[in-house]
Amino acid sequence: MEMAQHFVLACQIMTTVIDMVPKAKRCQNGDDLFMEIKRYSWITTSRNTDDVCPIFRRTFSAGKTVLSASLTITALGVYRAVLNGSPVGDFVLAPGWTSYDNRLQVQVYDVTSLLTDENELCVTIGRGWFRSPLPGWINSKDKQRRVAQPCGLIACLKIQYEDGTAETLSTDTDWTWAESPVRFSEIYDGERVDARVIPDDWQSAAILDWSRDILIPQEGETIRETECIAPKEIIRTPAGETVIDFGQEVTGYMAFSVTAKAGDRISFDHGEVLDSFGCFYNENYRSARSMVEYICRDGQQTWHPQLTFFGFRYVRLLSWPGEARPENFTAIVVHSDMQRTGWLASGNTELNQLFSNIVWGQRGNFLDVPTDCPQRDERLGWTGDAQVFVRTASYLYDVERFFRKWLHDLAADQRNTGEVGQVIPDVMPTAECSAAWGDAATICPWQIYQTYGSLKVLEDQFDSMRRWVDFISSVTKTPGLWTEHFHFGDWLGLDAKPGSYKGSSREDLIATAFYAYSTDLVVKTGRLLGMDVSAYAALHDEIVTAFRRTFPSLVTQTEHVVAIQFGLTPDPQKTADDLAALIRSDGIQLKTGFVGTPYILHVLSRYGYAGLAWDLVLRREYPGWLYPVTKGATTIWEHWDGIREDGSFWSADMNSFNHYSYGAVADWIFEQAAGIQHDESHPGFSELIYAPHPDIRLGWLSADLLTRHGKIRTKWTCQGDHIRYELSTPVPALVCLNGETRRVEKGDYVFFTSLNH
Ligand code: BGC
Predict the structure, then answer these.
(1) Distance (Å, rounded) from C-alpha 470 to C-alpha 519?
(2) CATH number, domain at 733?
């Protein structure tokens, strides 16, 4: 079969009957096969193809009856492999994103069902993250180096025949390459395809001298297409634009079907919101063009971008042959395919929308790496955002595998000094680290251990955790205090001075508080692993003493919050009382940013202010979690007022509508509102503390959490003058209601308390 037909066939099948393609499965004995690939060669193109994505090809006969066949493969760039016209596997954007200088994941697919007598294996390679100009707003030598890297492919196809013989085809100069129909593809700017192009000028591949020591078996979750969404409507905007509204902000790409003439042009770009006039808007994508261009061939065709992704709810059709109808378009949702483990529902519709927005925030930003946002010229693994959200993330989805992989990258990219970069993979290797960002090194492993109960993550990360604390100690000017260093502070704090993104909480105070917390986590981890951590325990005491001496009074909401949360205040109840008074004098509204917001509700409800915490959660006016919901949000916004009351936007410079950080409120809903808590001595929910904080304004709240020990189900309902609690626990539980505690064994229970309590 000619290559052009293969391309068309694969595309059509992929987008129209996504689940019916005979997809190759990941192979069982992948680790053995992985070891073998290290023996083979990298190949590349024999000349520079600039923007055009090359396609590599190997044809071969399998004249005997095949028992089994597997393809072991990875690339420098993102690859899409097609065997005899069918996509190999369902891994989108393979091989994912790692610290490429140190680690590159290898995939193994069972391709037995795809083989025929005469075979053609084709692999198209796009720039992906490997050669992308990440991040968009910086120009540096390191970035130029990465963009100039060659594309590369390493693969090995192993065929076992029924007669006992075997055959291995690996990447070498018997492979050929040509220019593919993909004329351009890149993470920020999108994809350009000319479907008329028939790869024909096949030339021998060249051997590429590139490290094979970086190759590792697949560690993270597979990135997959997980849902298809039909357009809600096609809008004609006041500016005369044709805009498709999918009704939900997603990460992925749009597929389209069209009957066209060769040379007809289709082009579109992506946006998250409409402006106050109802017109298309995407200035907030900054330099990321997020554009798709497709030149049609003759006839009916179905296509979607294959080597990049976008964050979007709206698509503006810039060029389309004929009339655009809803049935022509589908949004395809793409993310790391994690198992859902947490569910929340309540009697408050807006709160339910908030829960949905948080889940979509995670789906939109867990694309192999926990990213800040999926649309503008960032899409980076910001460490601060990851540590803020990890707890919520670990309840909503099973992210053990996802975080263990990312934390390995964090350790791999940790600098010689022990410093942890602002983003992981560290594409800004000269940018200074910051407190609450670098602390992802300690906070994320600890949370993964707490949620899932396996020590493996701590064993893997202990050295990295310790090195981060040692780094801070090495730059302190006064023992026990982290001062005089760059920090992001309480990023986006609402008490920021005009023109600043940093809240007014003292940066040295925040930095020292996180220094204490990270040191404490090193002590706890070390003890669990049987290490001598007495020096870190002494250091922790020293930091606490220095903190109390240096910051005898606390000023902002965030300062109070971290002092309580990290055990730094000598009298936490008094500090919580002061915090509650401060919040009231601030008009019962948040003034916190990235640092204070994830913890503020926890410290309030822990010290007797659950009602005030609920006031903050249920606030419908800016600033509050429900305000974006009242403005139609379908994901979590970077700013509480990304869209203001008058319909105007926050500055386009920094205004993402899919930024999961403030979605961290969900861990408070699970733990304090619904009452599903564990204590540190029983990680992984091997025992449960059930201590809910109901609020009549909701009527009812249910939370289900699938743990390693089974599913915990809870629901409280306000009924007349009492509250009914339903608890189904797979493990022994300590039930704390009405100020009384009692132990119960695993089982299903109903309790009642008086509403007035
Ligand atoms: C990102 C944030 C990130 C921050 C660092 C921003 O541009 O989008 O989420 O944490 O920079 O302060």
Answers:
(1) 9
(2) 2.60.420.10
- pLDDT score for 6: 33
CB of 293 within 6 A of ligand 1: the answer is no
Closest C-alpha to ligand 1, atom 11:
382
Q: Is the dihedral of CA 530, 531, 535, 536 positive or negative?
A: negative
Do 431 and 576 sit in the same domain of this protein? yes
Same domain as 232, residue 208: no
Q: Is the peptide bond before 623 cis (omega within 30 degrees of 0)?
A: yes
Same domain as 269, residue 206? no
Q: In this structure, is residue 492 part of a structural domain?
A: yes
When pLDDT is averaged across residues 59-77 and rounded to a whole number, the result is 95
Decide if pLDDT at 21 tops 60.
Answer: no
Instruction: State which amino acid sits at residue 496.
Output: A
Is 36 among the catalytic positions?
no
CATH number of the domain at 506, please: 1.50.10.10
Number of domains in the chain: 4
Structural domain boundaries, residue 574: 381-389+424-664
Q: Which two tokens mark 628?
A: 């974006």
169 and 237 in a single domain? The answer is: no
Q: Which of 190, 189, 227, 268 is nearest to 360 (CA)?
A: 227
Residues 133 and 72 in one domain: yes
Residue tagged active-site, from 191, 378, 507, 687:
378
pLDDT tens digits for 560-609?
A: 999 999 999 999 999 999 999 999 999 999 999 999 999 999 999 999 99
Q: Are 70 and 110 in contact (CB under 8 A)?
A: yes
pTM recorded for the entire structure: 0.95
Residue 215 and residue 247 in one domain = no
E-state strands within 394-553: none
User: CATH number, domain at 149?
Assistant: 2.60.120.260
- Please indicate, yes or no, if residue 473 is contained in any of the structural domains: yes
Question: In terms of domains, do 514 and 530 share one?
Answer: yes
Q: What is the pLDDT of residues 373-432, one digit of tens each?
A: 999 999 999 999 999 999 999 999 999 999 999 999 999 999 999 999 999 999 999 999
What's the whole-number average pLDDT of the chain?
94
**Cα–Cα distance between 189 and 285 in angstroms, integer?**
10
Cα(693)–Cα(394) distance, integer angstroms: 21
Q: Which of 16-25, 41-50, 193-202, 458-467 shows the lowest per-residue confidence on average (mean pLDDT)?
A: 16-25
Q: What is the pLDDT of residue 1?
A: 29
How long is the chain? 757
Task: Check pocket membership of 384 for ligand 1, CB cut-off 6 A.
Answer: yes
pLDDT at site 757? 54
Q: In ligand 1, which atom is closest to the CA atom of 437? A: 10
In a domain, 358, yes or no: no
**Protein residue closest via CA to atom 1 of ligand 1:** 372
- Tell whether 216 and 319 lie within a shared domain: no
**Quick check: is 300 in a domain?**
yes
Q: Whose CA is nearest to atom 12 of ligand 1?
A: 488
Q: How far apart are the C-alpha atoms of 416 and 405, rounded to whole Å?
A: 20
The phi, psi pair for 53, rounded to 5°, reads -80, 125
What does the pLDDT look like over 251-309, one tens digit per residue?
999 999 999 999 999 999 999 999 999 999 999 999 999 999 999 999 999 999 999 99
Q: Which of 272, 293, 638, 687 is catalytic?
A: 638
Q: Which of 664, 698, 717 represents a domain boundary (last residue)?
A: 664
Q: List, for residues 475-534, the tens digit of each pLDDT value.
A: 999 999 999 899 999 999 999 998 889 999 999 999 999 999 999 999 999 999 999 999
Q: Which residue has 């993979």 as its token pair? A: 425
Q: Is 198 exposed, middle or buried (0-12, 13-18, 19+ CB in 10 A)?
A: middle
Signed CA dihedral, 53, 366, 649, 639: sign only:
negative
Measured by CA distance, the residue closest to atom 5 of ligand 1 is 488
